[in-house]
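Format notes (please read before filing issues)

Several people have asked whether sequences and structure tokens are stored in separate files. They are not. Every record keeps both together, in the order shown below: the sequence lines, then the token lines. Line labels are part of the format and must not be stripped during preprocessing.
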Amino acid sequence: MIIKQHYHALVLAFQFLTRIPVYRVFSIANTMPCSQVAGKALLYYPVVGAVIGGCLIILPVMLSYFELAVSAQMQAGAVLALWVWITGGLHLDGLADSADAWLGGFGDKQRTLDLMKDPTCGPSAVVVLILVLLLKWLALSEVILHAQGASPVLWLAVVWVPVLARLQGMLLVVHTSYVRAQGLGTQLKNKAQAKWVWVWVLSLSGVMMYQNLWLSLAILMTIGLGYALMRRVMMLRINGWTGDTAGASIEISELLVLLVLPIYWSVP
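Then the structure lines:
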């Protein structure tokens, strides 16, 4: 029974966080999950991140292997388009809603929460989305340019980007109050197993530092400071997290890790 719950939770994590059609392959994806399964799905977010990261590096790795002359900018554009498609723009939607709510909420908690529910997209959301996607594209271009012809291990750094961002999302859910009285967040928050989240943190940190100590320390410090700042901002404004702010934190964490890579490699 426990194994079946974890199996369902893994499938549910992919079903919620990606556009991968798991319902066509796994019949259990078509069954309604119980609250225990919904809570356990949180623990598989880094696994989903690893699959997303693996999909992102397929194109540039293949082009590099066959020595095809495609510019880094074009490769980065294709990778970014795949990135948005495979996640269904889920976290970008949260980022857009959070941007509108934060700038239009004027410091008021209830107005901020109400604006997050508004389906329309304001100018603040458009500007933030453009900036985040532009910076991601620029960072990806630099990463691909640097990794071409280099050790294949460097491509693993790209895989860590979506993994660590979703790990940050796990920490946020487990260690921060959920704002709304009802919703998916109540199931994640109530059923999440905090000890296993820290197992993920320690395990992934150890593997990263074994691969590259100084780069890993730079990434972990950056994403740690980003997490602490984003959590503080959420607590000050709305006293917790919502699905939109969690999605926004994942997008920002991905951007922070991506920016660390070319900056680190440019240091002599």
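For reference, the curators noted about this record: Residues 76 and 137 are 6 Å apart (CA to CA). The mean pLDDT is 89.
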